[in-house]
Amino acid sequence: MAAAPEIYHRTCPPGLVIAYDDPGRMHGNYLAHTTPVAHFDATATAVFDHFEARNDLKRDSSGPSVGAMSFCIGGHLALRAALDPRCRAAVCAYPTGVHNGNLGADPDAGTLARLAEIKGELLLVFGDVDPYVPVPARGIMRSPGVGERHSAAVTGRRSQVAAEAQTAKMAQVRSITVRSSVLAFSSKMFDSREFVTHMSSPSIEQVIPGAQLVVRYSVYRHHGIYAGGGRVIHYAGWIRGRRGLIEEIPLDEFTEGREFKVNLSPPDLIIGRDVVRRARSRLGERCYDLLENNCEHFCTWCQLGEARSVQIELMAKPLRLAIAALQTLRSVASILPPESSAGAMRAR
Fold first, then answer.
1. How much is the pTM?
2. Which of 66, 95, 162, 197 is deepest in the core (most CB within 10 A)?
3. Going by C-beta distance under 8 Å and a sequence separation of 6 or more, which residues neighbour residue 207?
4. CATH number of the domain residue 227 falls in
């Protein structure tokens, strides 16, 4: 017997199917980032309670033989379900957010610190080039005192490595698909709707708050979130100091007289306003990093809950290493760019 609980039943009508398209992706990410972790855990508890009350399941002196399995955010939820001592085993495929506590509305789900509580068997499956659970993140989960404190972590290591090898090719194909679409500028990014392709900037009155605006420069693109009222929230890079600044500025200051395009736009005002709220929650932040936390990372996080920069992913590895070295030198030498050089090219 299998149970597939609806994890957003507190805020969505029963039986809701979230479409696998851009509006559905935004809706799903909105729900994922506004649901308290306690609600996710309570749903799993309710399922175990239901199974425990049934008389038609295989059981022993400890109760019914019940396990959990799911993918992506569900993989993380399956891992948390394994915290319940009634869970005999869990298969967690591509679980996101385990290494950094990113789950739901809580600032830190704390799953990693609770792995020792798991009594059942555990198998985690990852793709070698999964951008959301990269090699360093997997290293954190495998580090002594974390993953290996659970006996099944060692036992399942061989299966995990084999699963990684089997999924690597599929993951690489997925990455290549995304990259080739961006290289061709075919207007497909994160399966998003098409960029505006006309030569002039669209009428700002037609742009919904929460939309991602893009201004193209000679060697890079600068991204910002339209906040409505002719204002844009963006992550200004080194022009605002060594650590940058997330700020809200007028549209004409954001574009500097250049044309802008609309990248991914919210399906409605309700979701758009939530995107703006998320953007404003980080106003004043000074943690800019060209490779890890730039303007595009910021915008995709606001809209999709996933900090990602296709511009950086497209860079050749030697170039990324060179940039990383440059940033290190800037940090060590405390070299700040001139704040008033309006004619200098912005580093965003």
1. 0.49
2. 95
3. 213, 226, 262, 265
4. 3.90.1720.10
